[in-house]
Amino acid sequence: MESRLAERRARILGAARNLVAEAGYSAVSVPAIAKRAGVSTGLIYNYFDSKAVLFDELFRSATEHEIEACEAAARQPGSARERIGYVIETFAHRALAARQLAWALLAEPVETEIEQDRLRFRAPYRRLFAALIREGINDGEIADQDEDVVAAAMVGGIVEALIGPLSEPPEVGDEDRLIHTIVSYCANALGSIPEPSELGMAPYHD
Amino acid sequence: MESRLAERRARILGAARNLVAEAGYSAVSVPAIAKRAGVSTGLIYNYFDSKAVLFDELFRSATEHEIEACEAAARQPGSARERIGYVIETFAHRALAARQLAWALLAEPVETEIEQDRLRFRAPYRRLFAALIREGINDGEIADQDEDVVAAAMVGGIVEALIGPLSEPPEVGDEDRLIHTIVSYCANALGSIPEPSELGMAPYHD
DNA sequence: ATAAATAGTGAACCATCATTCAGTTCTTCT
DNA sequence: AGAAGAACTGAATGATGGTTCACTATTTAT
């Protein structure tokens, strides 16, 4: 059974999360979180050292949740290139389905301290893409390249391409077209399939 | 001759710009700008309605300056694909040569109101890339695609790939490799050169 | 030279919120 | 029940830093 302490923590985090998801970051002051959670302002500081810590945890858990979905997509059967496509589709679909939250997590202007956090939470996405690209390279599906730089560019590109649409109301047909454009863009960006080595060496795994 | 009024404006903007370029946005308070410009805090409000307006102008002029350099690169002779490559090289070289400023303009966490500005000032880059891509499409060099989405993804990708290096001290050899990686990445992302149309239609210009 | 207008000063002000803490209510244990 | 402690309250506090404004200095016009 969940301890009272943990229940309160979760309630506060949930309130913060709901506020972000409904109205964006700008609507979330500590008193607002308290009101939504049905507790006093002061109590929040019994559970979190500061607002920044609270948001750090909020961002972390939201990011982990998204990352898990993307990792699941990455585990689908298929070539590395195909799986990269699945991950992008998953990421983009989920972002477009929860626009306000995605906007807040990815791009909404926030106070300085929290912005730093946000930058940090892009790293897991970069790592996921970098790992898939490296796999593709080792399998001979993708030409050798600096997977860290390319992964960063992909994440930045996907987010930037989504930011405009994220802040506008949904337009049904366009969504699939947008995602398709982004997926093709990334697929192309990985370059063409390399010729098998003249030495006939088999692709290797580390 | 520059009017006294314009001279003062320019002096204040210059002071702000130098502070940003030397120490990043976090070092720039209104009193700090005043001190650097050798004027009083209050005077700044005779020339600018608010700090946000001052920075809006600062960002605008800095962005215009950069955009001009990129547009010059885009006017070099060459195919659309080649010229896109020149623009990326120009942009990246200049950013890496003035790291602190570039970091402040592109990614440093800033207060909410100013962040909104920053988002706006990415649009000119998107437009420049979009125009070049469209040219390439019309010339049959690039397969038809949504140039606005692709341009956004390129800009986002270039910036994201630079952000890490921008916040670290220069490492000489790496810089060219990094830029080369980004350029190839974008070149690939445009897709392969399309087959000439079966109907033998000539590429068209609007 | 004197007045009117304009430019400039900087200490005080204020708005915003995160944060605190003295006091109260609720639990738990004997 | 009663005491000890933990949980909780919310109005007051405080830090930051942008903004104002009553006042002084300088320039321009008569």
Automatic annotation (TrEMBL), chains A, B:
UniProt superkingdom: Bacteria
Keywords, sorted A to Z: DNA-binding, Transcription, Transcription regulation
HTH tetR-type domain mapped to chain residues: 6-66
Keyword Acyltransferase: no
DNA-binding region ranges: 29-48
UniProt GO MF annotations: DNA-binding transcription factor activity; transcription cis-regulatory region binding
Name of this chain's protein: Transcriptional regulator AcrR family protein
Originating organism: Salinisphaera hydrothermalis (strain C41B8)
